[in-house]
Amino acid sequence: MYGTLGLWYEPCAKEETDQNGKVFSPCAEIHVNLWRDVAYKFNFFDFGMLIENIENLDKIFLYIPTLVKKEQICDLGKSLKEGDTLNAVFNDVYNINKEFDGYFLVSKAGSSNIGKKIIYEINVDNCIELSEVSIGGGSRGTILSISCKFIKFMKESDVKDHNNIKKYIRLRIFLDKNSKNIFTSDDKSSDIGFSISQNLTEVTEFRFNERRSYPPDVLKRSFSGKQFNIKSIYYFLIRNKGYTLKSQHQNFKKIRFLEPGIWDIYASCGNTKRKILRLNQSMMIYQWRMSAVEGSDGIEDFTAYASFERSRLKFISYIVVLLAFGGVGGAVLNILVDYMKIYMHSTGFKEGVLTLWNSSSDQTVADLVRDIRYNSLSFLILMIAAFFSDNFFSCKKVRIELMGEVSN
Fold first, then answer.
1. How many other CB atoms are there within 10 angstroms of residue 198's CB atom?
2. Where are the transmembrane segments (predicted)?
């Protein structure tokens, strides 16, 4: 878990003002969905912006605290043409009024004037630019920028057809391998001794526009631009219901099940279809929300924290432990029997013990001493196996289960 998302914009060379001389400032409503437990080393997050007052907007920048390639980015605008998805994303009933080349107009059901929005489709190859930045410790981050050409397209469509209507864009960024945990950290622990379960604790902390966490290069870039007037932030964490919520941030709003069927098409956008359709019937949605204070310059930063716990049964390690203890019992019994035989050939207890460490001219005693040494070595090996197999097979089981999710 490291870093924060960052958002800023580059203004036009000549900024427009209102009749009082105040510069128009772009306003935004932020939507973030973080999908966890999708598959082994594979998660993703969705980033949406509902923007207005774009007169002075020239370019949009989004900082992501991990290395991202274009093949990891997917536009979600087209997926919102599906009715259930559109309603689920905006949490209301919407109709599509008109469709154009690269965008479409929606409004609340029953009225063509209430809740009007223009939803855009972004061509990732032509309208998204990526630049790498150093984030310290040898790691690299990414600044994603939405090109001037696309912003110009938004302005032209606005003037042409739908003046002063809010505009919506939404992207998905896939996180795999080392980047899958940019918002999370894991802790695997088990009780002392031979516990039948292992507790896995995960801390998820989503941070947005937390400038003190920006790397120096990103901070410099952000200060060269301007901040959006962020009116509200909606953050959704979607994860498997097998994890129990332990603690959460104070702005936590509610929990609900991921509705069966409604999210299937949306969640399958990109290259996740096979995995999501199988998993999303057992997913939970945790929601956080923050709104700007009336009359303020918007939300400066946002943090949402939650910790989860999951227990796993460790049957395989238990079987290994039982088998090891069975072997230990056999080894101890053999040692005792062999020692009693040596004792019968000695003149006392002390002499019997010394015989174990010294060579004996009696071949029978020498054979018994060798057997005791072999059984003692077996005893030591089996005890080590009993103690260390517990964690080994538990971790192995976790990996096998998660790899199975990928292959199915």
1. 21
2. 315-337, 374-393
